[in-house]
Write a structure and sequence with these properties.
3-stranded antiparallel sheet, 1 helix, alpha+beta
C-alpha cells in the first residue's frame, strides 16, 4: 500500500482533504471520491469535500 495526499481545487482555492492508502493512483482517486465525496443531497455548503464538478488530485505522500 502507498499513501496518497488528496487535494480539491475550487474557485475559492485548493484545500488538502487528507490521505488515502491504495496501491495505484487510479485506486487512490476512487478511494478519495469514496472517502471525501459530498453527495448533493447532503451538501450544506459548510463541509469540506469533493463536490460534483470539482477538480481534485492525488499525489504520493
Amino acid at each position: 500500500m502507498k499513501t496518497w495526499n488528496v487535494r480539491v481545487h475550487t474557485s475559492g482555492g485548493s484545500v488538502s482533504l487528507g490521505q488515502v492508502h491504495e496501491t495505484s493512483e487510479d485506486n487512490a482517486r476512487c478511494a478519495a471520491l469514496s472517502k471525501y465525496g459530498v453527495h448533493p443531497d447532503d451538501d450544506d455548503g459548510k463541509c469540506q469535500g469533493i463536490r460534483e464538478g470539482d477538480d481534485f488530485d492525488v499525489s504520493r505522500a
